[in-house]
Amino acid sequence: MLDFTIHPPRSTLTKAPTARISASPPPIESNHRLPGPERSSHQMATTMHAAEVLSWGSAPQYTSVPLPAPPSDPSLVQLKVLAAGLHRVVRSRASGQHYASGTLPHHVGIDGVGRAPDGHEVYFATIAADGGSYRDTVTVPHEDTAPLPAGADPIRIAALVNPGLSSWMALRCRCENLPEGFRVLIMGVTSASGRLAVQVARTLGAGRVVGVARDVHAMEALSLDEMVQLKGAGETDWKRIGAVDVVLDYVYGPPTVEFLKTLTRGRKVQYVHIGSLAGELDIMLPGAVLRSTDLTIRGSGQGSFGGREMRREVRGLVEAIGKFGEEKIRVCELKDVEKVWGESGERVVFVP
Question: Splitting the chain (352 residues) into consecutive groups of 10 residues, what average pLDDT does each group show?
Fold first, then answer.
C-alpha cells in the first residue's frame, strides 16, 4: 500500500486537539510553534526524542535515542523534523504485519517535513533510509527530499503527500493518453486517500468525477459530479456512473467485478487497482469482459513504477497541494504518540 502554484500562508499551530487547515487559513493565536533554527551551545546534545515500537502489537513509545552525527557523505542531509504524518501505511508497518515492517525496535514513520542546515524546508521520505520520521532529527539522501514552495504549510504537506500519492501516481504514471477533461470513477471515494483523489483528479484535469462509497452523507461533502451508493451484491445502481475514461479502485473484490461487467463496447477504459478496502485480495473476472470491451487493467503501488518516477512526481504533488481545498488535520505533540495511536477518524500530524 502506498497513498502524490498557489502558495497558502503558513498556519500557526494551536494546542487544541484539532486544527482546520485550509489553503488560506486564518491566523490562530498560539504559544506552540514549529521548531526554529538550531542554536549553538557549548554543550552538544547526545540524545534526541523518537517514537519506537519495542514489541509488535503495541503502541509506539516516546523515548530517547542516540543523536546521529552530521553525515560526512555529501549525498546525505540531516534535517530537523518539523512535522510527520500518521498514515495508514505507518500504522501497518508499525503493526509488524507489513512486508516492510523490518525488525525491532521499529522506527516509526515514513515521511515528513524538515528544516535543512541552510534553513530551507523540505518534504522528505525515510523509506530508503529506514530511520523513521517520528524523531527530532533524520538523515536522508538529498534525492529523497523535495523543496517546499514559498509559504507552504509544513503541517499540510506532512499530512497530505502520502495519501495523495496513491491517486497522483496512478493518474500520472499508470494511465496513458487520457483525453482532455477526462472522466474518472473513484471507488472507495470516502476513504482517506479516496477523498484526496477527488482533488488530485481535478488538479490533473478531470472534467467529471464520480464517486462510489457506502456513506452517502460523507460523499455529499466532496466535490463530486455524481454519487453512487455501494450496496449489497446485485443492488448497486452502476448505470448512474455513465461513461468513464479511468477507474481508480480502492475497494476491489466483488464490487469491482460487478462494475466491470457493466462496461459497454466502444469506449476505452483504463482501470487502476490501488487498494483492497473490501478485504478481498482476489477477484474472478469473466473472460467475456476482457474480450468484449476495450479495457486496460493495471495496478499502482511500489514495484509498478521506479524510484526516479516517484521522486519526480513527489515534487509535482508537493507543488500541487497548495491548490487543494480545505482539509481537517489534527496536530499532536510527539510525546503523546502512545495515547493518540489507538484513536482513528482524523488525519493526524505529529510535531516535536
Answer: 40 40 38 51 76 96 95 96 96 89 94 97 86 95 96 96 97 97 98 96 98 97 97 95 97 96 92 92 93 96 87 96 91 98 92 96
Pairing of the two strands 208-213 and 226-229: parallel
Residue 217's Cβ-side half-sphere holds a number of Cα atoms within 13 Å equal to 0
Number of Cβ atoms within 10 Å of the Cβ of 56: 12
d(CA 29, CA 43): 33
Phi, psi of 94 (to 5 degrees): -70, -15
Single out the residue of 278, 224, 219 nearest to residue 251, CA to CA.
Answer: 278
The whole-model pTM stands at 0.84
d(CA 144, CA 122) in angstroms, rounded, equals 10
Which of 187, 189, 120, 153 lies closest to 329, judged by CA?
153
In degrees rounded to 5, what are phi and psi of residue 213? -165, 170
147: cell is 523543496
SS3 category, 246: strand
Q: Which amino acid is at 139?
A: T
Q: Is residue 315 within 8 Å of 290, Cβ to Cβ?
A: no
